[in-house]
Amino acid sequence: MNDANRDFLLAPSILSADFARLGEEVDQVLAAGADIVHFDVMDNHYVPNLTIGPMVCQALRKHGVTAPIDAHLMVKPVDRLIGDFIEAGATYITFHPEASEHVDRSLQLIRSGGCKAGLVFNPATPLSYLDYVMDKVDMILLMSVNPGFGGQAFIPGTLDKLREARRRIDASGYEIRLEIDGGVKVDNIAEIARAGADTFVAGSAVFNAGRDSDPNRYDSVIRAFREQLATV
Ligand SMILES: O=C(CO)[C@H](O)[C@H](O)COP(=O)(O)O
Ligand SMILES: [Fe+2]
């Protein structure tokens, strides 16, 4: 696939949403044109922060969210929670290979539950974890910050890593999405897309936009992202 016909998907990270009004926040960002709900799961063990789990994913489904939910598991161990997120209605389940004792088994567990499987690479994690599992991944997620917190700055070296991941995907012949997570803003998304990403997580850039009282507060930031992507 080349840049011209790659479809770009926007995945706002609800890490930066107002948790007290989560259903409403998700409804508004999807109404503004977002494609995927990025759902950050942190365990205060694999990463130094604690967030939300499968019950909240299930609550979003019950609330009526039908868009894909992209569960980014920053937890160790991973396998038990994989089952819980399958039950809770996740669409994608991604995990960090260092957090699984048996990466191949965890990937198979996700697919056997009917979900799409992905591996997440921290800034210092080598892409060689992909060597023997390309046929078992639907998503490769490159972290462009160290995991654990929203609002951090994009690490520029990730652009080269994106180019390398894109080469691997194109050479494999498999349909695999290439997602980027951390510090994605309106002013760098085009450069990130040119380096090979096709799925863009953005938390603070989306949820810090607009005024709380404005029901259309996310329209202009989503439109600005799309305008930038149209230049790629
Ligand atoms: O996985 C994450 C952090 O570990 C988040 O998805 C990410 O940081 C998004 O937030 P921002 O766009 O504000 O950087
Ligand atoms: Fe994330």
TrEMBL record:
Catalysed reactions listed for this entry: D-ribulose 5-phosphate = D-xylulose 5-phosphate
What name does UniProt use for this protein?
Answer: Ribulose-phosphate 3-epimerase
Which keywords does this chain's UniProt record carry? Answer: Carbohydrate metabolism, Isomerase, Metal-binding
Please state what class of enzyme this protein is: isomerase
Q: Which residues bind substrate?
A: S13, H72, G148, F149, G150, G151, D181, G182, G183, G203, S204
Keyword Kinase assigned to the entry: answer is: no
| Cofactor field | Fe(2+); Mn(2+); Co(2+); a divalent metal cation
Q: Give the metabolic or biological pathway.
A: Carbohydrate degradation
Q: Which Pfam families match?
A: Ribul_P_3_epim
The organism's place on the tree of life at top rank = Bacteria
What's its EC?
A: 5.1.3.1
Q: What is the lineage of its organism?
A: Bacteria, Pseudomonadati, Pseudomonadota, Gammaproteobacteria, Oceanospirillales
**Family, per the entry?**
Belongs to the ribulose-phosphate 3-epimerase family.
Q: Name one GO molecular function term.
A: D-ribulose-phosphate 3-epimerase activity
Q: Is the keyword Isomerase assigned to this protein?
A: yes
Cited NCBIfam families: PRK05581.1-4, rpe
What InterPro entries does its record include? Aldolase_TIM (IPR013785), Ribul_P_3_epim (IPR026019), Ribul_P_3_epim-like (IPR000056), RibuloseP-bd_barrel (IPR011060)
What this chain does, per the record?
Catalyzes the reversible epimerization of D-ribulose 5-phosphate to D-xylulose 5-phosphate.
